[in-house]
Amino acid sequence: MSAQSNASLAAATRLVKNLGTEVRFEPMTLATLDSVLAVEQQAYAHPWQHSHFSDCLASGYQAQLLLAGEQLLGYFVAMKGVEEAHLLNITVAPTHQRQGWAQTLLEALALWARGQAAKWLWLEVRPSNARAIHVYKAHGFRHVGQRKQYYPAQAGLREDALVMSYRLHND
Ligand SMILES: CC(C)(COP(=O)(O)OP(=O)(O)OC[C@H]1O[C@@H](n2cnc3c(N)ncnc32)[C@H](O)[C@@H]1OP(=O)(O)O)[C@@H](O)C(=O)NCCC(=O)NCCS
After folding, report:
1. Of the four listed, 58, 125, 140, 143, which is most buried by Cβ atoms within 10 Å?
2. How many angstroms is it from 69 CA to the middle of ligand 1?
3. CA-CA distances (angstroms) from residue 62 to 2, 50, 93?
4. Does residue 155 come out as left (phi exceeding 0), alpha (psi in the -120 to 50 range) or beta?
5. Taking a C-beta distance cutoff of 8 angstroms, is the pair 89, 46 a contact?
6. pTM given for the model
7. Domain CATH for 112
8. Residue-range definition of the domain harbouring residue 29
9. Does 98 score more than 80 pLDDT?
10. Which atom of ligand 1 is nearest the CA belonging to 99?
């Protein structure tokens, strides 16, 4: 991660008192994957496996943990493209959901992406994931397309993805 991105993420770090400790971002590493995978398995019917995360880390993707003391509140993984960044995973630990942490993660993502000179953020989301869609729309994402049969679903079936994008303003 560049010094500029580090500065962006440092700027995004919020000091809050409601958890009795400082909330901060730290890079996801192989050493932190056990706690990430524990949250991932609680949060999704079709969780990412160890190899998904380790491949992202090996590829140098942006992967940040949101922590309160030793508690993992959530994390995101994103890939830089040409003038854009693609959100691959955003997760808030079930015990910490509905407290606004998704917006904190999205703000950190947007700050990092701006630091990479990205003009757009992109993501995919299941049409059945009403909560995530609500959060993305609240952040300013717009539904711009659909990918057929994108996600694994129950009983070996597949589910389409909604494609959403967000224009980053750099002024
Ligand atoms: C989606 C997710 C990241 C949201 O995180 P969060 O920290 O709970 O989200 P927030 O607290 O910031 O916001 C939740 C919002 O969703 C709303 N919401 C909750 N359930 C909802 C539902 N079923 N339909 C629509 N909106 C819903 C809440 O009212 C709140 O909106 P508000 O801020 O306008 O009141 C989190 O639920 C999560 O990790 N889910 C499992 C993994 C996942 O689905 N990731 C996204 C993959 S694309």
Report:
1. 125
2. 23
3. 10, 16, 19
4. left
5. no
6. 0.90
7. 3.40.630.30
8. 3-167
9. yes
10. 11
